[in-house]
Model the fold of this input.
Amino acid sequence: MSAIDELYQEMIIEHNRNPRNFRTIDDATHTAEGFNPICGDHFHVYLTVDAEGRIEDIAFEGKGCAISKASASMMTQILKGKTETEARELFDQFHKLATGELDPDQQGKDLGKLAVFSGVSKFPARVKCAVLSWHTMSSALDHVKVISTE
Ligand code: ZN
Done:
């Protein structure tokens, strides 16, 4: 197993066991619910966006496989304090990373620890698990309440 694979597994296990920002936000300005029917992943994402478009708080809750849960947990960490525009750019980068379309030189530059998810590009069924929370987040910003990866 390569170093990145080992790191990937460690981080997935750790975030799955101890997810960050795993809670609801009662006064959220944006929320959405996301489903991945293939795997059974089902999450709610909550955001509080201030008047300047900055994400003051972000949280998630729900049930899913280890990859979907770890991805959601790490997403909330990287997006807190970012602007809506930055969040959409990071989603675009993360989507390309997870589907293997990101230039290798770019990997890890803005995504930081999320670069470990480049491993899912080899497993198309797992790509949907990894991107579900990100799709749900961007739908929430677009005021779309429910999304499905199908
Ligand atoms: Zn899954």
The chain is about 40% helix and 20% strand. Residues 3-22+31-141 form a domain with the Sufe protein. Chain: A fold (CATH 3.90.1010.10). The beta strands are 30-36, 41-49, 55-63, 146-148. The first strand starts at residue 30 and ends at 36.
